[in-house]
Amino acid sequence: xxxLEYKFNEYLxxxxxxxxxxxxxxxxxxxxxxxxxxYKQAFLTWKEERKEILLSKADLILEAYDTQxxxxxLSSIYAKGQIIPFVGAGMxxxxxxxxxxxxxxxLRKETVVSESxxxxxLDSGQYExxxxxxxxxxxxxxxxxxxxxxxxxxxxxxxxxxxLPKLFTDSVIxxxxxxxxxxxxxxxxxxxxxxxxxxxxxxxxxxxVTDSKLLLKLHGKANTAKKRVLTEAEYNEHYxxxxxxxxxxxAITSSTLLFxxxxxxxxxxxxxMIQIAEDKGLDNIPRHxxxxxxYDEKDKLTKRDExxxxxxxxxxxxxxxxxDECIESLLLKLSEGRMYD
Length: 341
Known about the structure:
By secondary structure, the chain is of the alpha/beta class. The chain has helices at residues 2-12, 27-34, 36-64, 68-79, 100-108, 115-123, 127-136, 140-151, 164-167, 180-187, 201-210, 232-241, 244-252, 268-280, 300-308, 323-334, and strands at 18-20, 23-25, 83-87, 172-174, 194-197, 214-217, 256-260, 288-294, 312-318.
């Protein structure tokens, strides 16, 4: 896998470049050019060592937050092929794409909105409203062009997201605007058979049960405002006024979801899942799971209780640790090490 080779080269070069006769060289280049077979054997040895280190890390994470039994249940469902990954912005950030907070702060500089006014909205979790304020302070085509430039460019893909095609061979759901998932699956020669948008609820309801290789972009695409869900007005239109996204979310939550790279604040998606759980009853819908960073132990029970209303059950890791490595460790554990094969 290209990502593992990148990590191996990063490891080889961690002590800096080598200077020979006034010229500098990367250590991985020297080893590869000296003897390709030696390089390959060193890579295989390093990969096995890394695998054991990460599996041990996963065990420590599960022990630290006492989630071994929950993870065992998740592993059992995964082994039956009954999990759909729900992928958030945290899985694209290692590839250089902005998270929502940093993107909105960057976009603010193109408006007359004050830093303090925007920060107040972000601090209170009003991301839809923050996007709406920025949208109203720019020409609509300038707002759309900025979003397109930020998320529709094809950057080099890095991080644990590259394991997903090997781990999840059926449908995938995302609220991300970027094309990272589509490109990951294309690069792994297991392209999606269809890409549909969340507001096309009739297609979602039909295809999610009949199409085994579907990419559902729940909130639309970066390169078109049509069927997009980003600003408060767009959320109201598709979540409140027409309820089309509720129908899509109801369709996808009929299967067990595994949230990856999602902060899982109480946004419209989670509120809709809570509403569906209340309507149907928690005992009548599948349990969902999330690999999620915990930044402060004091927040643990409050966050657990919020997610439990949507029947989402957290598998915590230290939010102050390397997110991508923690997720990689837990995914490696979930696959029983097979994703390194």
